[in-house]
Amino acid sequence: EDQVTQSPEALRLQEGESSSLNCSYTVSGLRGLFWYRQDPGKGPEFLFTLYSAGEEKEKERLKATLTKKESFLHITAPKPEDSATYLCAVQVGRAGTALIFGKGTTLSVSS
Amino acid sequence: KAGVTQTPRYLIKTRGQQVTLSCSPISGHRSVSWYQQTPGQGLQFLFEYFSETQRNKGNFPGRFSGRQFSNSRSEMNVSTLELGDSALYLCASSSGATAGSPLHFGNGTRLTVT
Predict the structure, then answer these.
(1) pLDDT one-digit tens code per residue, A8-26
(2) How far apart are CA A95 and CA A88, in angstroms?
(3) Cβ atoms of residues B62 and B5 within 8 Å
(4) Cis before residue B8, ω within 30 degrees of 0?
(5) Which of A21, A22, A73, A76 is nearest to A47 (CA)?
(6) Is the distance from CB of A21 to CB of A37 less than 8 angstroms?
């Protein structure tokens, strides 16, 4: 069965304290791995797509990496506005855009 | 470019009733998907429509159904509502043209069943 697990469930950081979120997956036929950010009361906001092991993508203070079994979202020198729930999702080997989501990591950054 | 629009934002219904939720995708996007989000289960895929045809379906009972119109707008219907159907229902649109096309989500409809 295709499965996505995110850890930790919650993470509290001080402003400027860098850290990483983990997304491990067990799937057959990975077509893409996605990272989203979700703020309270809003829908998920697309951040990155990664397609193959070794790939990396960056956006401001965020950097996503992918291996054959997991993905990491590195947050460098976070600010309070980075506080949100970060969701990882995989698209597996069938036609269409259906995603399997992990349960997310809720990040709180305090000043 | 306007984002994905979902209406209404909030709904309160009684057990046994039915409900219809609406979604307008990003202009030019032909794929519309629906997801259910609850605190316990997280985000779960309901179904996807592409060019008015259901392309994929998740593991939900037949009480959950949807359709897509020729202008790509989509509706989702839930019949015989149960208390467990209380959730945030999210619609997402995508060009759907290639593998890995990102989904762009609306802000959802919050359904409460009493």
Answers:
(1) 999 999 999 999 999 999 9
(2) 20
(3) no
(4) yes
(5) A73
(6) no
Distances (CA, A) of B29 to A62, A74, B38, B68, B96: 27, 31, 26, 12, 7
- CB < 8 Å to A96, chain B: 31, 48, 50, 55-56, 96
- pLDDT by residue (tens digit) across B50-59? 999 998 899 9
Whether the CB-CB separation of B83 and B113 falls below 8 Å is answered with yes
Residues pairing with A110 in the sheet: A14
d(CA A26, CA A23): 10
Closest A-chain CA to B49? A96
Q: Which residues of B touch A29 (CB under 8 A)?
A: none
Residue B38's closest CA among A103, A83, A57, A11? A103
Rounded CA separation B65/B103 (Å): 20
Token pair 């629906």 in the structure block, residue: B34
Q: Are A25 and A3 in contact (CB under 8 A)?
A: yes
